[in-house]
Design goal:
Distance between the termini: 151 Å
Protein name: Ig-like domain-containing protein
Organism: Adineta steineri
Strand content: over 45%
Oligomer: single chain
Radius of gyration: 44 Å
Low-confidence stretches: 1-17, 318-349, 369-373
CATH class of the largest domain: Mainly Beta
Structural class: alpha+beta
Keywords: Disulfide bond, Immunoglobulin domain, Membrane, Repeat, Signal, Transmembrane, Transmembrane helix
Helix content: 10-25%
Shape: rod-shaped
CATH architecture of the largest domain: Sandwich
Number of strands: 23
InterPro entries: Ig-like_dom (IPR007110), Ig-like_dom_sf (IPR036179), Ig-like_fold (IPR013783), Ig_sub (IPR003599), Ig_sub2 (IPR003598), Immunoglobulin_dom (IPR013151), Neural/epithelial_adhesion (IPR051170)
């Protein structure tokens, strides 16, 4: 047991490191570039060889012009520039190369005592890289209208990148000129009230002075429960039913007649959340019935109804044949006007008698006025 302890102590003493003539130098190198560690030996070590050790304490290279055929050590070159100057050249620097390097000299070949001459702190400068843009809201699954949303842009790089927010199509950066509803702070973006009118795209820009900058765009689309209105119009011998639907997303939209789905409809996309369903009905076919416009998404199912019966035919007759010409003054109707009104049926006869009564009153009033004079 005692012999084992003695052996261990001898090993520790034989590989002891003396921190003398110690000096720290900071190096900063961009990714992919070359780092050069220059070690000038003191005069008392001028006849010694300098050895360079990496961040893990590994001896990187033992002699100049050494041919290393395997591993990443092929990127290391040891140069002896002058009698007292040794240089370690590291090419194609990567993130993993960052850390502390040491230049050491073996002061005795007997006890293998090492003296640290110089230390190097290598910082590898890396361009910014956006990791992700996450959404912080009350409901992470569905973005609803009138909800407060916080976007968080996470990025890495050395030095740590700064985050700038931008809305595509705008001429200003949100960090410098804030909208009342959209506020940028740190690496976050606060949207106080998410609505269908707020911008949908938000761009995160990460910059730390090391080119190139990194950008990523996040699209926010608030979910809208289906809202719909139905409008009808008569064109010649046809009825046009227009169902305007506001919804996002819109999973399904359809017209039904008496609860049966209609296939021959036309769909017109107005914008990303507005759709028109157009249904054309011909008077020459059986068009009477209850028409139903239905829209559905993950929020709810909405329906709107319109009843088509024989009253629409009466309205059609009235609107197409009972329109009278407009006059700037009231005058006695001509025989042609009287005949036209009589031919329009009972509804038009009422209009005729009303106009005739007005004319009689005006004529009697005029005669009385002149008689008084």
């Amino acid at each position: 047991m005692v012999s084992v302890v003695i052996i261990i102590l001898n090993l520790l003493l034989s590989s002891s490191v003396i921190l003398s003539d110690d000096y720290l130098e900071n190096l900063s190198v961009n990714t992919g570039e070359t780092a050069t560690f220059i070690c000038d030996l003191p005069e008392k070590y001028s006849n010694k060889q300098a050895d360079f050790y990496g961040p893990t304490g590994r001896l990187l290279i033992t002699k100049t012009d050494e041919d290393i055929a395997s591993g990443d050590r092929t990127r290391f070159i040891l140069e002896h520039t002058y009698a007292w100057t040794w240089s370690l050249i590291l090419s194609d620097v990567s993130d993993d190369d960052a850390g502390e390097y040491t230049c050491r000299v073996s002061s005795s070949s007997v006890d293998q005592t090492l003296t640290i001459i110089k230390r190097f702190n290598l910082t590898v400068l890396t361009p910014p890289k956006i990791i992700d843009i996450t959404i912080e809201s009350n409901n992470n699954e569905i973005l609803r209208e009138n909800e407060q949303i916080i976007l968080k842009c996470s990025a890495r790089g050395i030095p740590q990148p700064k985050i700038i927010w931008h809305i595509p199509g705008k001429k200003f950066l949100l960090n410098k000129r804030n909208d009342r509803n959209i506020i940028a702070f740190d690496n976050k973006l606060l949207i106080k009230n998410l609505s269908r009118t707020t911008p949908s795209d938000y761009q995160c820009i990460a910059d730390n002075g090391i080119p190139p900058r990194d950008t990523r765009t996040k699209r926010l689309l608030s979910s809208i429960s289906p809202e719909m209105t139905i409008q009808s119009s008569i064109k010649s011998s046809r009825i046009l039913l227009n169902c305007t639907i506001i919804a996002r997303p819109l999973d399904s939209a359809k017209w039904k007649r008496n609860r049966f789905e209609i296939n021959n409809i036309k769909r017109k996309q107005i914008n990303d959340y507005t759709v028109e369903l157009l249904l054309l009905l011909d008077f020459n076919t059986n068009i009477f019935g209850m028409y139903e416009c239905e829209a559905e998404n993950q929020l709810k199912v909405s329906k709107a109804f319109i009843n088509i019966d024989d009253t629409i035919l009466l309205n059609r007759t009235t609107t197409t044949s009972a329109m009278l010409p407009k006059y700037h003054r009231i005058s006695s109707p001509s025989y042609a006007q009287i005949e036209l009104l009589l031919n329009h049926g009972s509804i038009c006869k009422c209009q005729f008698y009303f106009i005739l009564l007005i004319n009689i009153i005006l004529i009697n009033y005029s005669n009385g006025f002149y008689n008084k004079r």
